[in-house]
Amino acid sequence: MRTSALRLSVVYAASFAAALVALVFVIYLLTTRFIDAEVDTVIERDAMSILEAYGRSGTRGIVNELDLRERTFSRINAVYLLTDAEGFVIAGNLPAWPAMRRDGRWVEFEIELREAGLETGRPVRAMMLEPGPGLRLLVGTDLSDRRDLGRRFAVAAGIGTLLVTLIALGIGYRQSQRILARVEAVSRSCKEIVGGNLARRLPLAGDDDEFDALAVEVNSLLARLARTTEILRTSLHSAAHDLRSPMHRMRLRMEQALNAEPASEVAGGDVAAAQRDTLEPLLRDVDQMQRVLTALLQIAEAESGTVGARPEPVALDLMLDELGELYQPQAEEQGITLAVSCAPGSLVLGHRQLLAQAVANLIDNALKFTPSGGRVDLRTELADGRLVISVADSGPGIPSEDRTRAVEPFVRLANAPPRDGSGLGLNLAAAVARLHGGSLRLEDNRPGLVARLDLPAGAPAGAP
């Protein structure tokens, strides 16, 4: 009884046994009442038949009728007795008038019979009548067979209830062991996961029951936890690697500035130019470090779902028009055509700042890798309750085997030209898509690449 499953099985078995006992008891009562009613009906018919004989021939008619029935065994276990007012036996198969319990016309008593050298008492139920002046008549039935039937029924019911209870306990114990085995398997898996094996998953029995449903949900949570942990590990490793270079350059430039000639000895006396030459590279390195740290913070917020602001309806047509106006000068300077096409009234429920940053990263990547004379298209599509924001360019694109890896943090593909950037743009866009219940897909634009941000469309009714 140490496990709740076993206790629950015992409770179920006890409840089932109690219900079975109650059912058998009700059936027993109904059966005995039915038999009693049938016995009374048979006795009444028999008594009426004897009274009819008395009506035809008087006392002699009853005597003849009882003799006839005794010779022909007209009714099994029948009991008859006709006496006068003094108790003298006139006819019947009883030796004397018995002591009885009376209930109106109905009486019950016992008769003593010798069977196999032993005297046994047999219960009798009878109807007492007075067919005429000075006459008493008993018409009844020996209830021994009925009592035997009741005892057999009670014994059979008891044995059946005991067997069913034992079977129920056995089944309950088997089920409790099965449940306990599954719980132990889950416990072992949890211990492995706590021990650091994030690739471990809860086992599925294949029964498609509530345990499997719970395991599927927990495994989904573990998969996300493992993915987040891997992203964190990779991000920390890559961030440390990417930040090391600008910090090293900053240190060298500061050492050079400290070891440089005094300001009065600088060639030409241009102190401001010398300071600018020292500080401008430092500022560029600081800006690069700030971009990396900001992107990492945004990715961490999106992956953990701990964005401070509450989700609100975002009008994509207004947001994309603003982004198009923001990047139009850069596109014109590079000789690239930037086209924006968005259906009015396109709404998603989410965080406007993160969505704008994700789309801005996609546009920025498209402009970086699209040559002069190329084209970048920014549009939205609505299909099956989903809003898809697509950014398509005519650049070199990404090979299909590298597209999955391209959204990982700090990844720079081998065929990509050397450009400034943190290597976190696509990873941030993918994290924002997951935060909003969507996904980021990279597909072939022939030529170029099309990045599709797939999000749930619409806003809840009553949303501001």
In brief:
Helix content is 55%, strand content 19%. By secondary structure, it is an alpha+beta fold.
Query: What would CATH call the homologous superfamily of the largest domain?
Result: PAS domain
Quaternary class: single chain
The rough form would be described as: rod-shaped
The percent of residues in helical segments reads: 55-70%
Distance between the termini: 56 Å
Identify the strand order in the major beta sheet: 2-1-6-5-4-3
Order of helices and strands: HEEEEEEHHHEHEEHEEHHEE
How do the helices and strands line up, and which of them pair or pack?
Blueprint: H1 4-72, E1 78-84, E2 89-92, E3 101-103, E4 106-115, E5 118-129, E6 135-142, H2 144-194, H3 210-259, H4 271-304, E7 312-315, H5 316-334, E8 337-341, E9 347-350, H6 352-369, E10 375-383, E11 386-393, H7 403-406, H8 425-435, E12 439-444, E13 449-456
Parallel strand pairs: 8-10
Antiparallel strand pairs: 1-2, 1-6, 3-4, 4-5, 5-6, 7-9, 10-11, 11-13, 12-13
Helix pairs in contact: 1-2, 3-4, 4-8, 5-6, 6-8
Structure description:
With 464 residues, this protein is α+β, with helices and mostly antiparallel strands. It has helices spanning 4-72, 144-194, 210-259, 271-304, 316-334, 352-369, 403-406, 425-435, and strands spanning 78-84, 89-92, 101-103, 106-115, 118-129, 135-142, 312-315, 337-341, 347-350, 375-383, 386-393, 439-444, 449-456. It has a 6-stranded antiparallel beta sheet with strand order 2-1-6-5-4-3. Strands 8-10-11-13-12 form a 5-stranded mixed beta sheet. Strands 7-9 form a two-stranded antiparallel ribbon. A hairpin with a 4-residue loop joins strand 12 (439-444) and strand 13. It is rod-shaped and about 155 Å long. It starts with a helix and ends in an 8-residue tail after the last strand. The relative contact order is 0.07.
